Amino acid sequence: MTKQFKLKCKVGNQETDIDFYVGDPQETSHPIGFQMKFFSQRGIVVPEEVVQAMSRLNEIAKKNRIPFEDLIGYVSEELQFGDIIKEKMLQKNKAN
Length: 96
Description:
96 residues; alpha+beta; three-stranded antiparallel sheet; 54% helix; 21% strand
């Protein structure tokens, strides 16, 4: 099953959220390799730390024999939850 998620990418001098779609990548392919190529032809740059993180997550998925798209879904949910917690903490600190 394919998962959709957003990544911050550079378009010129600005950062913007770009939709990415992942499934279970082929053994010899980067998880977002085809999309990176497509976007780069349109002047959109995926940050290197994101490229490396995707590679690492793919290695973890293979090692643990879980679908890459499931791991991405889990990580994405955890990061969103972390952002919500941070925002609540900031609001609480501002109120005090």
